[in-house]
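Sample intake sheet
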Amino acid sequence: AKRLNLPPFARRHHLRGIEVLEYQGKRYYLIKSEAASYLIRFEGSNNSVEYIVNLIFFALIAFLVINYWLIRKSLSPLSRLEKDIKNYSNGKSLEPKYIESTNEVARINNAFYDYASKATALTKSRELFIRNIFHELNTPVTKGKLLAEISSDAATKEMLESIFNRLDTLLKELAQMEKISSKSYTLDIKRVPIIELIDSAKELLYLEDIEHNISNEVLECDFKAMQLVFKNLIDNAIKYGSNLQIEHNSGSICFKSEGKKLTKPLSEYTHAFNGSSSSFGLGLYIVKEILDMHKMDLEYSCKEGVNSFCIRASTRNSIGRG
């Protein structure tokens, strides 16, 4: 607080945080706190009742001022904590800021940073584990490619190259799926011809042709992520149905096939390795995750024995003509 240069007062009373002073026949109240000091002149008679009332009044003011300052000081960490929570939810790293106190704000603050530190340690451990797995899997694939190159038999060389190129593609796909499931994948949104997504999925699944009504329609999406959506929806349609068709209808792309109707709501099949949907594995889970990132919806319907899984854009221009 700012230091006050005062003349010599005759001190009359001294209470906690307040002094009653007299100078040249006038009464003054000096209210002190850690935040500031206030000197108030009182004009009136020295009647004892008035004096006591005024004393109580100004004591209450001093009490409220001091308590207000203490409350603000105790709650000040909340603004920083709110900012750190937002940064943490956006994937930014945090520097723990513990408070040495036992009040509620300190306990909340310290509990959050304890959780954030443990979660960060688990994430780093998981990333290291996955990195080691992919390294170990990539080693035999690389050796297999070298073996295929030195093979003298043309048929064997072609077969080995096909096998190990397929394994290499699957590893890259798994790495991309891991990034998507861990929310660490950044979308690169562009206007992509839908026919290119179909052709890419056909290549990944070693399919020759797929019936569709797509011409020059485009989809605003991340190509690498969306090709996984097409690949998984086409793969499921072929595995659990027949006569696959891909249709574009007024803001949606539908993958239709003849087969049995789903026995449970679609949400039951979009959880990773859900016991009730184990036959779908990670397929629909990855599809749902990617579409959520694109702000798109996955819808299911079954009419006259035909199952339809439809990608529906949330905005008008997400699916349109090229």
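Comment: The helical segments are 48-89, 104-150, 154-181, 194-205, 223-239, 283-293. The mean pLDDT is 79.
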